[in-house]
Amino acid sequence: MGLADEDSGHNPTIVGRRPNVGCIWYGTRMKRSRILVVDDDRDIRGLLRELLTRAGYDVSDAESGKAGLREFYASPPDLVLLDVSMPELDGWQTLERIRDLSEVPVMMLTARAGELEKVRGLKSGADDYVTKPFGRQELLARVEALLRRSGPRGEEPTTYGDGVVTIDFAQREVTVRGKQVVLTPLEFKLLTVFVRHPNQVLSHEQLLELVWGDAVSGSRARAKLYVGYLRGKLDEAGADQSLIETVRGFGYRYRPKAA
User: Fold this and answer.
1) With contact defined as beta carbons under 8 Å apart, do 28 and 155 qualify?
2) pLDDT, position 82
3) Rounded distance, CA 86 to CA 66, Å?
């Protein structure tokens, strides 16, 4: 299975031994967070590349929105630093295209410090907003905070399997009883949350926080809708309908099946 309308380019991974945990297995690798810098100012790109590389991140950069999207599709990053004011495809338009495919954290960079501009950025799907000129230590702290909120970056599972579902997290591929299934980025993220919390009841609020990053203003109906989408695709591929259980009054629970 691949993500709908999303290409994945990844370096080879080292898969560890499958732990003896019943019917579930994971493979892991060590991963350094990868950051994509999109800015039409060569000096800014050079400064950010040097700063982030010294901080231990893998960094790639692009000089325009279009080039940034090509780089994003070729090798999806863990975080995007995105300039607002660029010719042809500006930061807002680039952000809109990124959000069509991914929930990756995006930090907007701009010389405009007005409150309305910041509000626009956050409402458009940006995760943070930094004005130029920025302090180096502050920017690094904000980068670390976004990566920390988006998930662990140490030794991460790259594969998962039980008696029904197999997932390659690095390639964004899923199979159900050997049959490939195509999921959207949000459906894939939702499935990832379920398999990483097997046999645990997850409330609507927990799903909204883990998948969308917002349990306060998010809608329970949204979580219910996407659980329905995910169930439909898994069932169509041959999964047991009880794979994702509804726990009335509480939420949902993923029950791995034996082979």
Assistant:
1) yes
2) 94
3) 10
Ordered by where they begin, the domains of the chain are 25-29+154-254 (1.10.10.10), 32-150 (3.40.50.2300)
Strands of the 244-247 sheet, one edge to the other:
201-203, 251-254, 244-247
For residue 258, what are its two tokens? 């034996």
Residues 23, 164: Cα–Cα separation, whole Å: 10
pTM (predicted TM-score): 0.50
Contacts for 60 with CB less than 8 Å, ≥ 6 apart: 34, 35, 36, 37, 71, 75, 77
For residue 69, CA distances in Å to 7, 57, 133, 220 come to: 11, 20, 25, 32
Per-run averaged pLDDT (10 residues), the chain, 259 residues: 39 34 53 88 93 91 92 88 89 86 86 65 75 87 86 64 88 90 90 88 84 68 92 90 86 82
For 123-183, what is the HEC assignment?
HCCCCEEEECCCCHHHHHHHHHHHHHHHCCCCEEEEEEECCCEEEECCCCEEEECCEECCE
Name every residue whose Cβ is closer than 8 Å to that of residue 221 and which is 6 or more positions away in sequence. Answer: none
